[in-house]
Every structure is written in structure tokens, then in C-alpha cells.
Amino acid sequence: MLTYNFFIFLNGITDAARLFIIAIGLTLIFSLMRIVNLAHGVLYLAGGYIGLSVMQYSGSYLLALAAGALGVMIIGFLIERGLLIWVRGQDLPETLLTLALIVIFQDTLLAIWGGYPKSIPKPALLDFSANILGLPYPAMRLFTIVLAVFIGLGLWFLIEKTNIGAAIRAGVDDRETASALGLNIPVIFTFVFCIGAFLAGFAGVIGATLTSLAPGLDSQALLFALVVIIVGGLGSLVGSAFGAVIVGLILNFGRSYLPEFAFLLTFLPMLLIIGFRPQGLFGKR
Amino acid sequence: MKTLKMILTGFLIAGLLAIGPSAATAAEEIRIGVAGPHTGFAAEFGAAEYKGVVLALEELGGKIADRPVKLIKSDTGCDGSKAVSKFRDTLLRDKVHAFIGPVCGNEGMAIVDWAKDYPDLPIIIAYSAPEDVTMRKRQYNVVRPGWTGTQTNYYLGEYVVKELGWKRIIMIGQDYSFPWGQAHGFIRGFCRAGGEKFLKIWHPPNTEDYSSYLLKVRSIAKDYDALAMNTAGSDAVALFKQFFEFGLDKQLKLFGFTNALDSTSLETLGPKAIGLISGMHYVEGLEYAPKGMFTQEVIDRWLRFKKAYMKKYDEVPPCGAEQGYVCLMLYNKAVLAVNGDIENKKRELLGALHAADMSDAPRGPFKLDEYGHATQNVYTRQVQKHDGRLVNVPIKAYRDISQFTAYEHMKDEYMAQPPSSRDYPPGDCEKLCENGLGPYPDGHCPK
Amino acid sequence: MATPNEQTLSKKTRRILFHLVVGLLVATVPLWISRFGLALSTQIMYLGILVMSFTFMASHGGLLSLAQVSFFGIAGYTLGILTVKAGMPLPYPYLLGILMAAVAAAILGLITIRVTAIPFLMMTLAFGEITYGTARHWSSLTNGDNGINDIPDLVLFGASFSAAKEPIRFYYLVLVVFIFCFWLLNKINRSPFGLAHQATKQSATRLEALGYPVFAIKYFAFIISAAYAGIAGLLGSTFEGTINPDSIWFGTIMFMLIAAILGGVNSPVGPLVGVTISIVLEKFIEPLTDHYRIVIGVVFLFSILLARQGIMGFIEKTRLYRRALRVCGLD
């Protein structure tokens, strides 16, 4: 019984790691630029597809991962510089613009890669199942925890401890003053958006390796990213980590013990938070 | 307010004039609406149906009964309301004589009700699989040379018990009506053949992470023989992958119901899929069947279609494509039977559709039953590798299976039972007889 | 500019004449339009009501509510469940449908009306997802993914308005409902309540300082908008004869947004214009390419970037428009 629950817990944590990696790009862009990038889901999917193609041609997982992340970063750059720049600062048009991008991207991805389900094979190094308490557990899932921690710490370091991070934080807190002090706000924002897009693409490749790749999974990615940030608190990176853990645990314990209510499990954390603490766990009012 | 009323009407008029009077249509041509999803997650199925229809039309030289044929493609998006809207638009604007499609289950259910208002309009359904379209909700003008989930899985249920000795099965399935139908057929065949336990685990579509479902399975695996995949598409790919990752292949056998091992997923599933069985009325590896299963004639006809399709589209024909092809061929035969006079001989055309001889269909011979659904071969098929590709190959053929499977002689009792749902029929074979839930085909009940 | 005395017709006469022409054209649509066009006109009108409910919240309340589509769905499902599953006689399901939509807004509003625009948008999106999920999974109530399919023909006071068999009658019914909704909404917007509602968009704090119950105003506006969306839902599901989970989710949300923005969020005729353009656009582009969604997405994109106020915003600024107003005596 204890072993069983331990494994569900492990599932929850590894799932949380995957959800964190998916959500972090969206959180970053929202917390620093106040833009809800609803195109996050299709960027995730695009990253997966680019990674898949590179994997098919080169056979190198590392290359596929890099290509997926960088490819989407470039797309993000184009979106930010080419489109969002015209509506900078106006919340609603920005959000609507990202909605328009969903429609365009969904069909474009379908046109290029078709509708059959696909998947990215695991890198050879991680293509085994570790022996945990006498039972096999996929190594790739465990590695996802490592990746999530690495990304989380890396971002924290970047934002809290570096000059660039300080500039970003200044630009967010008080745009005019920061600009008056000589900080190049547009460049900073483009930089932030690109990192967010990079993370979305990265998440796409990892997701395609752990699960699969098909039209429709962009909505899943977006949905989970939104749930994680609503639970964790709009605008808090630490909140995303906690949000992901809560969602991951609820999903997995719920699926195991109450499978008939599985479809509610996606919204349950969100409903609870909105009911008891609408700003999220770490959100500011 | 008044200003606005003016502008309001101005635009209304301008917009409507643009599409107001209908375009002149050639009196001679036959117009067929081909409806299916071309956007969204089900886009490949609409595309396959259309490709099959186009290939068939090409082989007919672009004409039916010496009249040129125009195909009007419309996108239903796997949405019942949109399907009704598109069907209505195509009928009113393009004045089509018949429809081929739709594809998705919910579309089929919506259309069969819509069809009530147009009893002379032939609708030939290719892929949409809910039973009730040709059972409880049947319409004379709606025919289906396709399949239902129950039809393709009843004998799979029998097969796993009789041929493989698997009497205790866990099923993981997507929680919506198409997998419910498949489970329905399987459970009846399974229970009748002497199956003991059948555990259903339903999950919401697009689940992606099955770790906790598989964990639960792992904890009870010693009491079961096999795991059935009743999922499809991206879910099947994820479930399949994670099944092996968690080492479940050492404890349970794995197999699929119908579309879990669809030809379009095999390449993604990879070599681990070799040897897995499933049940379907269509096999893309028909030519590799054991000797004697088919006459040379059937194999040749299949290969001719397969080669023509591969030449034109550079891929193995998926099920939807063969069905689209067959729909047009069926319509062709019916129109020929009324000498091309589809405007005046509407009732006769429908009769001809129902009576058409489809023994030359690429998938194998079939005919339509009295409710307009195909009575055909159903195969237990296995994934094998031939000529460098993974294909489904038939290993056992069940011939002339109707949509009622073994209940062919008790249609009314069958239809009096509840329709397939999450809970019906129950996984417990003994409960199949309680509270009027239905006797077995030979009339007996356990105990 | 010629003085009124020198004009051939007086301003008042011109105005009346114009109304006659307009009324005549609209009323006689079924006579000069094709069957297809008639079906389209009917669709345009009830979708116009849906978009009206959206622009009411967006332009007057400053809140982008994606929940309108959910209210559309709740009304449609209520109709379907009560008629098909419970066998309730008409016309009560229609009333209950609108009521359920309003009740849903009343519950949702308690949570969401407090927050600002972006969280509001996300919450209504979440609500949409929950409605979709519930419609899909509570299959004993909603028939799950197959939806409810034999929604009966409209019958009011003994007269039948079947969309398939009597499309002209149905058109007139929808026309009457549309004109009533349009007129009512205009009246609401000009009333003290409506003006206060508009003011909440600009500065809620100032309004509160003046003693207005800002929350209550926004809350009731939300419920009214839901009732409108509910009416659209009843008409829509009766017209199609079916309601299912997919028709109350993303595709319809995108359609509503695109129509609202294209038409012009701030113009009273924006919804009708936007819906007309969106539908005509779709019907024309779809036969040309499989990837018509990309074209529509691009049009939407450009509209957001270049024509924030939509077509009406663009037109209202032109001289031709002002001239036309003068000619028809409407200035």
C-alpha cells in the first residue's frame, strides 16, 4: 500500500515536472510582460514537430531538442517584433492577437506535418527503466525532474542575480522610469518573449518524447499551463512550481482513486483556488 | 438608432446579394457533396475519405452513367452542429444530388436526424460508426457501407478466449461513444465464449500521461491475462509507449480493439507493435493473409486498389480511404441501375443503393443489410512486418458478419436493450442477464 | 450646402421614405433571395444576437467575456434536455433555457465580476472549458459527445416554425426576435443604467466615490448579456436541430471574437456587420482552399492591428458616410 502510494506520488512529481516545463514559458511572459500568450500551446506543438523532423533527419536527440527550442524562439522573435510591437501595452489587443495566432498556427502545423499521431523517440542514454523498489520506472520521467529543477533555478538566477534580470525587473515595475534611466525597454521585452518561446519549444520536444504529438495537444498544453499559473498565482515563478506540483499530485492521485471523475481533475485545482484564494497561491492582489 | 438601421440593412443586403441568387448549374452533371473534417484533430480522416472518393471518380472517368460528376468538398470539423450546417449549405447552395460522409461519430448521429427532413436525399456514410445510425435511428435514405465498433469487436472477444485462452481482461479506453461501442461488442463476444473478468478503465480523451492508470493496472496485473487498448491516435501512442516503460509487458499481454492499431499509427508505434492483435473489417495487409483465406480474385482486386492508391497518394490506403472509394462505387452502381435518371427515380435509386452488389469491394465482398449497413467480413488481424513495413494482416476471418453480429435473429430484442454507454454493457458477464439487460444470442443466461 | 427650403424633399420626408425602403427590403428578403441565402440570413441574425451579447460586455463594460458561448450552450442544452429527454411541452423549455443561462451568469458573475480584464478573460475561458468538459462527460444528462440531436421544431402558440419545412416563417420569427433584441439593447444602453455601465469601463473608482453600486451594475449587465446569449442559443440549436459539446467551444468562441472585432466592437451595428462579413468570408474562402482557417486567422490578425474599431469604425470616419447620412435625413 505504501509502495503503491509512493509510486503515485512519484508519478505526480514527474508529471509536475513536465507540467512545470510546459507552464514556465507562459508564466515568464505573463509575469514580466503582462501578456497572456495564448499561442503558447501552438508554440509548444511547433517545437515538438520541429524537433521531430530534426530527429528524423539527424538521429540526434540533442540536436532535435536544440532545434525545437531555438526554432520556436525564432518564431517568437518574429511574433514579438513583427506583430506584438504594434499593440504593445494594450492588454486586450495583445491577447486577441495571440488568439489569432492560434487559428493560424493550428492549420499551418496541420498543413506541414499532417494529422497522424507522432512521437519522438527517447535519447539512447535515457531509453531504459530504472529499478525503483523492485519495479521498473522510466528514466526519462525521472530526468524530467532534473530538467525542471535546472530550468527553475536557472531562471531564478537569471532574474534575481544578474544585471539582465535586474533590468527586466525594473522594466516591469516601472516602465517609464527604467526607460528614462537608459534601459532599452523594447529590447528587454523582446528578450523576455524569446526566452518564453524558447521554453515553449523546449517543452514541446520533451512532451513529444514523454507522451506524443498530434493536433489537439496544443490545447492540452495551453490548458495545463493556464491551470498551473492560475493555481500558482499570476505572475509568480515560484508559484508555477508549486502550482505544477499541486496539479500533478491531484491528477495522479485522482486518476488512481477516482478514475470516474478524471475529467474534473483538470479543473479541480483551478476551481478550489478561485474559490478560496483567487489571486493564486503566490499571486499578488 | 435609425442611422444604424440603415447601415444595418445596407450591409445585410450587400452581403446577401453577393451570395443571393444561386449560380447557374449544369443540368446534366451529378453533384455529390463529400463531407468530413478537414481541420482539427480528425482532419486526416476527412482527407482520407476524400482521397478515396477522388480515386474512385478517376477510375470511372469522371462520369457516372455518362453524366459528368462534380464533387463538392466541405469541412465538418468533427462537430455535429457544423456538420448539419455544412450539409444544409451544400444542399441549398450547390443543390447536390447525394452526400458521401460524414466521418465522425457525433456528425453521423446529427446527420441521421437531419436526414429525416430530406427523405429522398441519399446519404452514404463512410466512416461514422455509431450503431444507432443504422439501428435505432435508421432512415431509409441513409446507408452505411462502413462499420460499427460492436461489429468489429464481437468476434475479437470470442477469439481471445477461444484461441488465446485470455479470460481476464483489463481495458483502458477513451471515455466517449466510439470506444463504448467497441467495448460493447467485445464484452458480448467475450462473455459468450466463456470469458471471466473484464475491467473497464475509462479516461478522458487527450490524457497523454497514463502513469497512474498503468500503476493501478500493475497492482492488479497478476489477476489478469491481457490489457486491451481501446484508445486511438495520440492517446494510443502515449499509452503504448508508457506500457512498455513501466515494464507491464512482462506481466500482461497487450492487444488493441479496432483503431488502436490503425494503419496510420503503426509506424509511430514502432517494432514493439509486431505481433499485437486487433479486430477490424479492413486490413491493409490483406495480400499477406494465410493461404486459402481468400480467393485469388479477392486478393487481386485488393492489390489493384492498393497499388492505384499508393501510386496516386504515396501511402498505404487507410481505412477511411477505402470506404470513401466504396461509397462512390456504391452510388455509381445505384445510379446505373436507374439508368442515370436520378431526378425522377428517387425512390428507385434508394432501393438500388440498398440492393447493390458490392462483392467487388477492395476490402472484400460485402452487401448492405435491410437497415442499410454493411454485412461483411470481420478479421482478427495481427501486426506483422512485410516488405520493410508494418502492416495489419488477417489471421482469422469471420464471414458475413452483420452489425447485429450474433444477434442477427433477435434484432428487436437487441435494439430494445440500452445503447452502448460507459456502463453498458457491464464488465461483469453475470450481470449481462439481470434486469432485462439482455440474453445471450442462443437465449441462455449464465446460472 | 443647400438650405432645407431648397431641397426637393424635406428632411422628415426623406427619413420616412428611407425607413420604408429599408423596412421593405428587410421584410421581403425571402422573396428575392435564394434558399441558401435565406438560411444564411437566419444564421446571421441569431449569431448577431450572440455577438451583441459579447460587444455589450466588451464595449460598454470593458470586459472580454468568452463565457457568452457557454451561455449559448447552456440555453441550448437546457432546451435539448427538457424537450428530448424530459418531454416537457413547448414553450416552457424556451423560458427555462434563457433562465438557466442567466442563472449561470449569476453564479459565475459572483466570482468573476470582481476582477480586472485579463483574469476575467481567463476565467471565462476556464468556464468555457468546464462547460465543454461537463457537456462531454455527463453523458447521462447531455448524451456526451454525440450531443442532443432531435431538438424539436419551434412551436409557439400552436403555430409551427420549422426551420427545415417552413424556412420563411422561421426567418421572420428570427427577424422579429433580432429587431426586438437590438431595440431593447439600445434602450438599455441609453438608460441611466446603461450609461453607468459604460462609465464603469472608464473609471470604476470615481463612480464608486459618487455612490454608484459598481459591482451591482456590472453584475446585472453580465446577467443581461447572458440572457441575450441564451436567446441566441435557443434559436441556434432549434435552427440546426442539434447541440453538442464542440459547438459551444473553441470554434464558436473564435467566430464570435472575429465577428465582433471585424464588425467594430463599439458600433451598435458592429455585430451584424461582423457576422455577415465573417460568414460570407468563410463560405467564399472554404471552397477555394483546405487551409481557409489560415486565411481567416490572418484577416483577424490584420483587423486587430490595423482596424481596431472594425469595419464600422473605419466607415464612420469617411466623408461618404456623413454625406449618406445627410441624404437620408438621418443627421
List keywords for this structure.
heterotrimer, B: 447 residues, alpha/beta, Rossmann fold, 6-stranded mixed sheet, 4-stranded parallel sheet, 13 helices, 39% helix, globular, C: 331 residues, mainly alpha, 2 domains, two-stranded antiparallel ribbon, 16 helices, 2 strands, 73% helix, 2% strand
Notes on the protein architecture:
The complex is a heterotrimer of chains A (285), B (447) and C (331). Chain A has one domain. Helix content of chain A is 74%, strand content 3%. Chain A is built from twelve helices and two strands. Chain A has a two-stranded antiparallel ribbon. In chain A, helix 1 (2-33) runs parallel beside helix 5. Chain B has a six-stranded mixed β-sheet with strand order 2-3-1-4-5-6. Chain B is globular, with a radius of gyration of 23 Å. Chain C has 331 residues and is mostly helical. Chain C has two domains: 34-246, no CATH class; 249-331. Helices cover 73% and strands 2% of the residues of chain C. Chain C contains 16 helices and two strands. Chain C has a two-stranded antiparallel ribbon with strand order 1-2. In chain C, strand 1 (154-156) and strand 2 (159-161) form a beta hairpin. The chains are: A mainly alpha (285), B alpha/beta (447), C mainly alpha (331).
State which percent range the strand residues of chain B make up: 15-25%
Biggest contact = B-C, 53 and 65 residues
- The chain-level structural class of chain A is mainly alpha
- The total of beta strands of chain B comes to 14
Widest sheet: strand ordering of chain A: 1-2
CATH class of the largest domain in chain B: Alpha Beta
Order of helices and strands of chain A: HHHHEEHHHHHHHH
The Cα radius of gyration of chain B reads 23 Å
Radius of gyration of chain A: 19 Å
Q: In terms of per-residue confidence, which ranges of chain A show pLDDT below 50 for 5 or more consecutive residues?
A: none
Which range does the strand content of chain A fall in? under 5%
Helix content of chain B: 25-40%
Low-confidence stretches of chain B: 20-24
Q: What do we call the CATH topology of the largest domain in chain B?
A: Rossmann fold
* Terminus-to-terminus distance of chain B: 77 Å
Q: Pairing-aware structural class of the strands and helices of chain B?
A: alpha/beta
Q: What is the residue-mean pLDDT of chain B, rounded to a whole number?
A: 90
